Amino acid sequence: MKGFMIGVWVLIVALASSYAAVYFDNTKKPADAEQAAITLQFDKTRVINVPMIAKGSVQGFVVAQFGYTVDAAMLKKTQLSPEAFLLDEAFRTLYSDDHLDFSHLERYDINKFTKHLVQATNERLGSNLVKSVLIQDFTYFSKEETEH
Questions:
Q1: What number does CATH give the domain 40-147?
Q2: I need a labelling partner for 9 at 20 to 30 A (CA). Which of 18, 28, 62, 81 fits?
Q3: Antiparallel, parallel or unpaired: β 40-44 and 57-71
Q4: pTM (predicted TM-score)
Q5: Cα–Cα distance list, 31 to 21, 25, 38, 45, 74 (Å)
């Protein structure tokens, strides 16, 4: 009888330890994923209006708003606002880009544009603070549409 009881006890301890190992291992992984998600912070920029000039006059306006993710820990350490630099880069790029033809927007490479904004903004900030840029709004209004 003692041998039987010792066998049952060993079986219960083995099952309990296996259950505990699986339970704690599974609860640990989502916590790591949650911690990684906390380090990124999302924010939106204000709306900007960029005049499109061709043939010596204003042809219309681009109205754009962007979303961006930043490293939250790095953002706390810096004194600079990434939004100001991001909007300045967006304005400069849109204003001076010869490939931006609003009669044929399907030809404009949005992925290249957003990657350029990330790279140029980070270069100006002197760190890898901005992780990605998203297009929230990107609209073109011709001069005729704005006069009505």
A1: 3.30.479
A2: 28
A3: antiparallel
A4: 0.69
A5: 16, 10, 10, 30, 21
